[in-house]
Recover the amino acids of this structure.
């Protein structure tokens, strides 16, 4: 019971959870503690009725972790999958228990990669404990018993006990110090298509996303941040809202204004009626042109951080049969999660409670604590469902400090919700970037030398400068370093950092989204200059890379499925691209046609994907489709532009999204080669733009060197 | 104070008449299955039925819905039985993050009422909702499945 507000929040939450199923709120381990069996390990609770509760530390934002991660536990636990339910432990519980659930951050396609071992071990540990408890009850040796489908059987006597019957006893047994994990050949659940656990709730509108949080006594806030990044608030004239109903307070922050009101709609109306003056902080004249000039300087700069160098570039260029050069560029991109950013906060004295759709609950907790100058121990964090993430809700938790600062001014819980306009104009954008390519081809048309000069806005140097090594941002050059699949005798990849005043961040598949476009398009240029088929050219160039086999396998799988060597439909042309991101190998073949009026159509995109091991082929395939849409939307339309220091776009009418009518037929070839674990959420994003642009080149002879495609006139002349 | 009939229940709602129906439903009535996505009738996350017609409730003043039957995602299933669109959505595992799906499902339910056997072209022109997770391939398959259910 919170004395100050009279809110018994725990009772409230339990009531909601009980009424509509655990997924409906974001479920805290402690909330439903009453009537619980003791946990067997921190990950697993088994109830007397055999219900298996599996805890999921990572966030669910559509990618299917809520189903795939429990599968990893269940495989080793040998439980009946139909009895599995899930819950999210709270970040503050994790802190209190010495991070027993490990890392909560959800990004970089790492949920499965980094969770698979601890989760499989947790399942195996609990299984051994359950077997030990049953063996003790029967007075037999544990090695005479086995578990299968939530039932423990004593081999010699045929006696059985269900997990629920021995769970309480198992919880008291010391966990084994070592467990043996199954050989993948023995898996029964992993690698099979398993239906998502959250679908039925989602078709009924039941899940509670951050924006749906509703607490007794809660107020609502709408905010406006300084339209020019890094600017500050000068003054607010509140006279226009004096008579407006429901308004509780105007909160003035260093670089933002918020109105707190009885409903968000009333808050928004009042916010719009304020007369606000801003200090643009000196960035009020920055524009697309000035940013472009700044980056062109980076392309020509004498100094640049070297990411990779092989051979001797000058020597490579010296005896070239042919030299080709090209500049490429991409714009800023907003994440535009369907659920706008939001965060609900209740500050009471030196404690705070927050409800937030976040990809990183622990970072949200730390951010709230830091903002209030209190210990993380005093912050309780409830993770809700996420209406999309795509990196917007991960490394940057900007919505937390803003909501905390607003809530600090109010004696009640406050839900702060970004309008769509605010969400588009205050993102941490996919960086603007350019690449200058110079290559020397030999008499056979194969590259002897290649210089890749990159420039643009570094994420690492602005968000996590400690990641730089000797001033070099290697992440910005991903795809051009050791992960570059081609053999080039004389090679240099370097990067001149050019940071603008626009905040940048991690956007699904991050720097691969531009770099794969740059690299795979330019390889296509080389193939064309050599007069060699683009597939054949790549096959010849992928020779000595340590992962050559994997690159070739996905390339061939995509080409085979697409029928690369057979004619496409009339007026339809093909392009391809290959890449490695986050340990996953991926290739795509796009089929495109370009109408006489310049309209680009993409009837079909084939993706071949090797993440090593696939946990749930059903969600893996859907992630591939999802990634294709994400990449295709950006390739066709995605562009955030800057004028007068601020973002020009504001909503979906000027920041266009792909819709159903434009959806290609996506065919995904899942080609796990085994022996490693990687992710599926991001990698296919990057191959879409180059595959499509290479298809457009095949169709029109026009080489696309900048995105989005909407800015190109592809009409037949 | 205006009176709104939502999912067969009458609610007295204390809002200005120009308050968008979306916010009256979400904040005043407390039904949060209907989502805010854009506020300018672009994305369709807020789609509800008003007298059986799919409307983007962010762009409909609450006063315009007085005396009409409003159905939200919470009222689509009848007597605990999922609507055929919801059923097809489950069978085809359509939702990913799920945020836009309430609006998507409401739009499709209205389409199937108008056109029980929609062609791909019908679907393309009627279903213009935005889904950032890119569930469109499953959406199309599920629509055809619901149409033949």
């Amino acid at each position: 019971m919170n004395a100050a507000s009279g809110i018994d929040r725990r009772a409230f939450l339990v009531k909601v959870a009980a009424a509509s199923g655990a997924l409906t709120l974001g479920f805290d381990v402690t909330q439903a503690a009453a009537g619980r069996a003791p946990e067997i390990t921190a990950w697993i609770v088994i109830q007397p009725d055999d219900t298996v509760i599996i805890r999921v530390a990572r966030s669910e934002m559509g990618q299917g972790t809520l189903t795939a991660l429990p599968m990893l536990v269940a495989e080793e636990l040998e439980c009946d999958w139909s009895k599995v339910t899930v819950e999210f432990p709270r970040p503050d519980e994790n802190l209190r228990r010495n991070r027993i659930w490990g890392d909560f951050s959800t990004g970089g396609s790492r949920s499965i990669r980094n969770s698979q071992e601890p989760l499989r071990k947790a399942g195996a540990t609990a299984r051994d404990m359950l077997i030990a408890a049953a063996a003790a009850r029967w007075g037999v040796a544990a090695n005479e018993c086995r578990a299968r489908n939530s039932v423990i059987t004593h081999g010699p006597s045929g006696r059985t006990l269900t997990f629920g019957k021995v769970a309480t006893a198992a919880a008291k047994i010391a966990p084994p110090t070592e467990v043996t994990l199954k050989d993948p050949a023995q898996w029964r659940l992993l690698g099979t298509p398993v239906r998502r656990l959250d679908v039925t709730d989602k078709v009924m509108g039941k899940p509670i996303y951050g924006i749906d949080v509703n607490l007794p006594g809660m107020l609502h806030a709408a905010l406006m941040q300084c339209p020019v990044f890094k600017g500050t608030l000068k003054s607010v004239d509140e006279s226009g809202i004096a008579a407006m109903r429901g308004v509780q307070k105007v909160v003035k922050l260093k670089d933002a204004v918020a109105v707190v009101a009885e409903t968000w709609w009333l808050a928004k109306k009042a916010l719009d009626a304020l007369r606000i003056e801003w200090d643009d902080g000196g960035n009020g004249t920055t524009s697309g042109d000035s940013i472009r000039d700044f980056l062109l300087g980076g392309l020509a700069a004498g100094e640049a951080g070297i990411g990779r160098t092989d051979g001797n570039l000058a020597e490579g260029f010296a005896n070239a049969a042919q030299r080709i050069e090209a500049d490429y560029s991409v714009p800023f991109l907003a994440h535009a999660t369907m659920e706008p950013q939001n965060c609900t906060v209740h500050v009471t004295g030196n404690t705070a409670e927050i409800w937030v759709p976040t990809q990183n609950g622990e970072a949200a907790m730390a951010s709230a604590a830091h903002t209030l100058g209190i210990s993380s121990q005093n912050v309780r964090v409830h993770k809700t469902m996420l209406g999309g993430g795509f990196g917007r809700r991960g490394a940057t938790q900007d919505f937390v400090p803003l909501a905390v600062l607003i809530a600090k001014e109010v004696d009640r819980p406050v839900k702060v919700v970004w309008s769509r306009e605010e969400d588009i104009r205050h993102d941490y954008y996919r960086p603007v970037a350019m690449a200058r390519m110079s290559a020397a081809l030999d008499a056979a048309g194969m590259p002897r030398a290649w210089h890749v000069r990159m420039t643009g806005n570094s994420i690492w140097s602005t968000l996590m400068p400690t990641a730089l090594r000797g001033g070099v941002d290697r992440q910005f050059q991903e795809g051009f370093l050791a992960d570059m699949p081609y053999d080039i005798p004389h090679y240099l990849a370097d990067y001149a950092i050019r940071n603008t005043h626009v905040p940048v961040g991690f956007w699904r598949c991050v720097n691969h989204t531009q770099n794969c476009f740059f690299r795979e398009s330019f390889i296509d240029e080389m193939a064309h200059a050599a007069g060699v088929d683009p597939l054949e050219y790549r096959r010849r160039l992928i020779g000595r890379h340590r992962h050559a086999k994997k690159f070739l396998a996905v390339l061939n799988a995509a080409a085979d499925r697409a029928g690369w060597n057979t004619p496409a439909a009339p007026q339809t042309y093909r392009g391809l691209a290959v890449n490695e991101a986050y340990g996953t190998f991926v290739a795509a073949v796009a089929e495109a046609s370009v109408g006489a009026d310049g309209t680009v159509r993409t009837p079909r995109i084939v993706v071949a994907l090797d993440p090593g091991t696939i946990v749930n082929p059903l969600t893996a395939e859907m992630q591939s489709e999802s990634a294709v849409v994400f990449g295709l939307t950006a390739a066709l339309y995605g562009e955030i532009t800057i004028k007068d220091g601020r973002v020009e776009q504001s909503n979906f009418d000027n920041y266009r999204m792909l819709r159903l009518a434009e959806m290609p037929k996506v065919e995904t070839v899942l080609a796990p080669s085994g022996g490693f674990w990687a992710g599926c959420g991001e990698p296919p994003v990057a191959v879409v733009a180059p595959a499509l642009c290479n298809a457009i080149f095949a169709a029109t002879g026009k080489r696309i060197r900048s995105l989005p495609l909407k800015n190109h006139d592809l009409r037949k002349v | 104070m205006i009176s709104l009939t939502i999912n067969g229940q009458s609610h007295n709602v204390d809002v200005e008449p120009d308050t968008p129906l979306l916010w009256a439903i979400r904040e005043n009535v407390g039904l949060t299955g209907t989502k805010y996505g854009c506020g300018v009738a672009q994305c369709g996350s807020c789609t509800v039925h008003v007298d059986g017609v799919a409307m983007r409730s962010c762009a409909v003043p609450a006063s315009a819905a007085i005396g009409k039957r409003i159905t939200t995602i919470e009222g689509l299933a009848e007597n605990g039985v999922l609507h055929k669109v919801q059923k097809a959505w489950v069978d085809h595992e359509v939702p990913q993050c799920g945020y836009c799906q309430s609006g998507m499902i409401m739009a499709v339910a209205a389409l199937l009422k108008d056109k029980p056997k929609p062609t791909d072209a019908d679907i393309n022109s009627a279903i213009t909702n935005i889904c950032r997770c890119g569930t469109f391939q499953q959406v199309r398959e599920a629509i055809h499945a619901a149409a033949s259910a």
